Amino acid sequence: MVHTFSEYEYKRPDIKQIAAEVDTLLKEFKEKDSADAQAEVIDRLNTYFNHLSTMSNLALIRSTIDTRDEFYDKERNFFDEYGPAIQEIDFKYYETLIASPYKSELEQRYGKQLFSLAEKAVKGFDPKVKSLLQKENKLDSEYSRLLASAEIEFDGKVLNLSEFGPYAQHTNRQMRRSATEALHGFMEMHLDKIDRIYDDLVKTRHQIAVELGYKNFIELGYIRMNRIDYDSDMVQNFRDQVAEYVVPLVTELKERQRRRIGVEKLKIYDESFDFTTGNAVPKGDTEDILQAGENMYLELSKETGEFFKFMRQRELFDVEAKKGKEGGGYCTFIPDYSSPFIFSNFNGTLDDVTVLTHEAGHAFQSYMSSGFEVPEYQFPTLESAEIHSMSMEYFTYPWMEQFFKEDTDKFKYTHMADNISFLPYGVAIDEFQHIVYAHPELSPKERRQEWQKLEDKYLPHRDYDGIEPLASGAFWHKQGHVFSDPFYYIDYTLAQVCAMQFWKRANEDFDSAWSDYINLCRLGGSLPFNALVEKANLISPFEDGCLQSVVKEAQDYLNLIDDSAL
């Protein structure tokens, strides 16, 4: 019998009871006299871990679908409060695992990646910081709820932040400017509160890092992100290459856009407006997009067809923007039901399709790797996970006409140009976080000033036209990753370079590229980033020359398109 998402049962877990039962199993684990006997205990432990993950994900999903739902709001608060206690359960398990006298035999059974992840988890936690972790969780949720609470009167309507998307692409320039002022009027009204939340987050994270024996949060941040086969020096080298090779190209693309839309100076409220005839928009409503998605995935491959039908039958989508719904989009996995779940905020722009294909890439990967007996391999580390999502956006290019009809060429031009233009912004966010966490003593105003310096370096085309609080360096206030997932954002840029390689290869030999992509999805999180890239027959973004080569391919593709005629 097929159960739909609404039928997935939620019950608040008894954390103290689970902790006691895990302690008993860990004691049993230590007493076992063979790797096989210890593996049997690991399998039983994983049942507990999967159940905890299921309940926390159900609470998260249902609270983000409607932040006004009092029951799930309380359950989300519960996991914020008990998250560190759950982390302590994990910590004890990983500490015991890596101390096993049969470690080498267990590595042969489960793979070395499990033990690499376990070592990172042990380095990133100590029971003495539990209260600080609770504080960090609550601050993160406070930020999310603040942005979800937006109810802004504009154009005779009351809009949340996601619903402003179409206005950023309006053909009337004054409407675009007014919408930008209205949206950021809300952000300015809460400027001090957002600054305070972030200031508290930075100082709390710094304190956690110091308590754990690190100089500052940067080292701990890399540990939390499970960076196993690269370091901050390699990331800095990548950022330097973006500054050298990509920033000039983006400046050129913005100049093409300025001429194309016929303005004297490109302003912030023009950046999402690509064509005087209007941007590409999907034809039809939410159900039309999902139906076109189903048709597309049925044609793409046997595996994707089965996957999408699985998702549709179980109603594992919540994609429309609604009042009280949290912003953004994500994919997560519900272990006890072996179900991915896709959350987004459709708003009538081309993002509806790119978010669908992006999150479907995550969901498809987790669907393909759901057979792993190791829960840690359900998703790869985040920079690897973004390869699946971003590559899916490109692999579905041949089907974009089903969504955009006569606007298909517009969509492809905008999609590629936006992906290139994203790279400098992505690395600017990363460098900003390195500065912030290296100098936790900076005041909120000083942080915004540091952001302005990075805009001069990576986004020299940007002009806020005096609109506050953007002009005062607060653009990043709307970037949720900065608050909830420090050092995550660079992962999108690394993955984009990999995804563009899949795009190039798909143009040359689709079947070969798709075969490597399927294999990559099946590997899940069983290997670290560079090893997965190698398995997919891609070149690491950290290899000198890779970025320059990939961007040149994309530039040549865009130069073949007469964008002034679109």
UniProtKB/TrEMBL annotation:
Protein name, UniProt field: M3 family oligoendopeptidase
Superkingdom: Bacteria
Every Peptidase M3A/M3B catalytic domain range: 168-549
Sequence intervals crossing the membrane: none
Family: Belongs to the peptidase M3 family.
Cofactor remark: Binds 1 zinc ion.
Keywords: Hydrolase, Metal-binding, Metalloprotease, Protease, Zinc
SUPFAM superfamilies: Metalloproteases ('zincins'), catalytic domain (SSF55486)
Gene3D superfamilies tied to this protein: 1.10.1370.30
Species in which this protein is naturally found: Salinicoccus jeotgali
